[in-house]
Amino acid sequence: MRIALLKNLKEKYVNMLKYILSYEEKYGSLNYYSRISSNGIAWSINELGIEISRGEINYLLKRGLLERIRKGVYHINPSVREALREELGWISVDLDNNIDIENALRYVIHSDRDARAILNLAKFNKKWKTIYDDVGWDLKKAKEIVIGVGADLSVLNRMRESGLLIEVNSGEFLFNDFDLSLLDPYLESSFSTKDAVHEFLHVVIPMRNLFREFVSNITKKDLEEIKDQIKNIEAILKYSRHVMGSLYMDMVLPIIQQYGLADVPIYSDKGRKITQTGFSLAYFGEPGTGKTFATDDIIRGNERDGVPPHGIIGRIRYAEGMTPKKFIAILEAYQNYPVDWVIPEFNDFFRYRGMVEKLKLVMEHREVSDETKKDVIYPYKVTSFFIVNYNTKIFGSKWNVTVEDPNFNALEDRMICKIFINDELRERMIYENMIRKVNGDIDWFLSESLQKHLTYSYYYYSNTNTRLIINSHDFVRFGDKIRELRKNYRANLSNRIILKGLQIAGSAALVKGVGEELSELYISWDELSLALNFIKDEIKTRSMRYN
């Protein structure tokens, strides 16, 4: 059946029907309150952005488009609903003023008490609706609930402005239902400290929204274009050579580390799990050797120096000037939202006694807790990774850390490390790159695509069951070469260095599998060979340590 009379309806009636259909699609029924107000307005639903008068109701009733359920309560006539959708070109019309609940909560909640007020209002509303269905409760009751938890009444105004509280009649309200688990992070009991609560509200949520916005806006065409530009790790190597010349490997490793953040499992072809891709990275050595440029500038960008960002959108947290106590406190807010922490002066963290042991647990992704005179941080599981820079003492061709804690070796052993010594060769290479920049020879032609590819890569691998596979014979061959390097350089390293190399190779292999919908992705010998170059650097670095 076609509803030809729509052609003769005024535009406002057509829009009303769209709104009503949309509302019914979302909530199952209209739940209009059953009283006609003194000004003749029958329905006033803020989230729909419309008011429907008694006369308009009667008009739609007469034409058979609306049906009365009981006195004052209506819905679309079931006999015409499907035809009406077809006539309106119905697919999935969203509410024009449908609110983003997470953004609304961020705006409304200023404290733990605000969150408790909203929770109690929601619980009261649920009980009220079971008795009165579509009849709203008055502002007096709302104020009692808010005052009862010690919150400021201003939270009610913010709830009305955001659409969490819907005024269905003068002084009569209903609660805009949503999944109450969204309130959990705002309740102070969910975190040990106020620092963690503040971090979640003002840093984690905006980062998460930024990440989700990117993912939701990327089209199939966008994905095909960036996949065409970045088919495998070789595309990144070529781009890095263009940007950094002979020092290109300094840039490649942080980018590989970003691909590994999805922490994809690595198995042998015999079905045994070996490790996962996620690893933390440490660049250390003398000042002025390019550590910050290769990590922080490349990953986060440096607008002042004209360096565009390359790192994952919404998954990078900068920690400059942060005390380690503050770091341990706010890290709790990232349990369910892993990020890459960029820490520019990592050795500053170790001026505080006892931090080495805690950061060792952080690097191992184990539970962390802390207790001070003011706060107790309850055990929480770390899921984030780290890119850190720090300065060291240099003695000719030897080096040593400035951290006196003897356990610092254990911390370094849990990161992939690369030393930067300001010798004549590196100084000349840095100068050559400065000249290339001045002459306009550096073109950041892949920066935007690489950032998109990295961001989508994280999203893709975090939401699939893809596993990386290494041929067992290749693993033995790879391990033997690393053991031989250790012997040749006389480096005091554990066999963990083999797993580090495998993490680099596995992370590099992820580049080629983005969006391919493969349950298994094989690590090639080319990717293992690339990893060997970095592991050789680390083994050489370890052998240069002054004892």
Question: How is this fold's topology laid out?
Answer:
Layout: H1 11-27, E1 41-45, E2 50-53, H2 54-62, E3 66-70, E4 73-76, H3 78-87, H4 101-108, H5 112-132, E5 137-138, H6 139-148, H7 154-162, E6 165-169, E7 172-175, H8 194-217, H9 220-229, H10 233-244, H11 248-259, E8 265-268, E9 273-276, E10 281-285, H12 291-300, E11 316-318, H13 324-330, E12 340-343, H14 355-363, E13 367-371, E14 376-381, E15 385-395, E16 398-401, H15 408-412, E17 416-420, H16 424-438, H17 447-462, E18 467-470, H18 472-489, H19 496-509, E19 520-522, H20 525-543
Parallel strand pairs: 8-18, 10-15, 10-17, 11-12, 12-15, 18-19
Antiparallel strand pairs: 1-2, 3-4, 5-7, 6-7, 8-9, 13-14, 15-16
Helix pairs in contact: 4-7, 5-6, 9-17, 10-11, 11-12, 18-20, 19-20
What is this entry, summarized?
With 547 residues, the chain is an alpha/beta fold. It has 20 helices and 19 strands. It folds into three domains: 4-87, Arc Repressor Mutant, subunit A (Orthogonal Bundle), CATH 1.10.10; 101-190; 205-543, 3-Layer(aba) Sandwich (Rossmann fold), CATH 3.40.50.300.
Question: What structural keywords apply?
Answer:
547 residues, alpha/beta, Arc Repressor Mutant, subunit A, Rossmann fold, 3 domains, six-stranded mixed β-sheet, four-stranded mixed β-sheet, 16% strand
